[in-house]
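Lab manual, section 2.4: Encoding a predicted structure.

Procedure: take the sequence of the chain (384 residues), apply the prediction step described in section 2.3, and record the output as structure tokens. A sample record is shown.
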Amino acid sequence: MSEALTFLMSYETLRAVWWLFLGVLLIGFAVTGGYDLGVGALLRVVARDDDERRVLLNAIGPTWEGNQVWFILGGGAIFAAYPLIYAAAFSGFFVALILVLFALILRPVGFDYRSKLPQPRWRDAWDWCLFIGGFVPALVFGVAFGNLLQGVPFHYDEALRVRYEGGFFGLLNPFGLLVGVVSLSMLVMQGAAFLLIKTTGVIRARAQRWLGIAVATFCVSFVLAGIWVAWGIEGYRIVTFAGGDAHSNPLAKTVERAAGAWFDNYRALPLLWAIPSLAVIGALAAWRVAPARPGIGFVLSSIATACTVLTAGVAMFPFMMPSSLQPSHSLTAWDATSSLLTLRWMFWMTVLFLPLILLYTSWVFRVMRGPVHVEHVRGSDAHY
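Recorded output:
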């Protein structure tokens, strides 16, 4: 037991564990926060009048705030476990992150203020705010991942100060926008699958149509992005580095860029090809199953969403923020972490609190299960 604990608490192992923890947090947000972002993006097209939009808002109303915990935990994990990545990301993606922040701020304000007044223009304006709060983050998250796969234009100077040489509009390149479409369609798929559980009648029928549109868009864009990565983008590969248990120093390694390098992990372990395959299969299965078995359809959509995030993570591992200017300055899971003591303390805190979050989330979903009907919200001041 002591030998196993010593191995688990080693610097190299904890670095790998925290890469997994971060992946769990990102997947948790994509699955739970993803469906309420997707519902926000569908607000103007699935619901056609005030009562119908109130149905959608009350479908996600009991859970959307709790879903943001995954996003906050992810940001906190990057800040505490990967401070170099946190610093470099907020330099390189500052405008994009501020844009996401402003869009997310519209969500709680929109939920709280939309129904304060009965005037149609008032409510319509807040509906647009809620749409922006769902659409913009879903798109920008994908654009950010697309730029990570291409490499971010940053480097370190002799004093280990990060220097970013790009700009916001440089992020809006064709591949970045394509991955943005992957992200947007994936979360719209997740939102539509959730609405098939929580709505009835004409609203459910529209959600079903948009589920088909989202699945088709997701599958096509996901496959196109994979082909683009294989044939049009150079990946990154570590040639030499100080080792997984060395002190964090992003300059203590050599890195090369090579065509097809993002597929090295898949070549080394062919079983990993099951992950992107399940992303496509899960999406198609969700489209087929959800109309008759919406609960199973949502699970299948969630599997597709989780596997999409894993596909990118596995391809890039151990890289987390590659540098397009100085590839050897890229940040990886081995050389961008906090100290060993910090990772140990955070590990035990995560082991203690993450199960509580999962139990609480499961309990909330169980208590709030069941569809929302127009009759529930029409003329009721107790609902959004």
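Check your result against the sample. The chain has one domain: 10-377.
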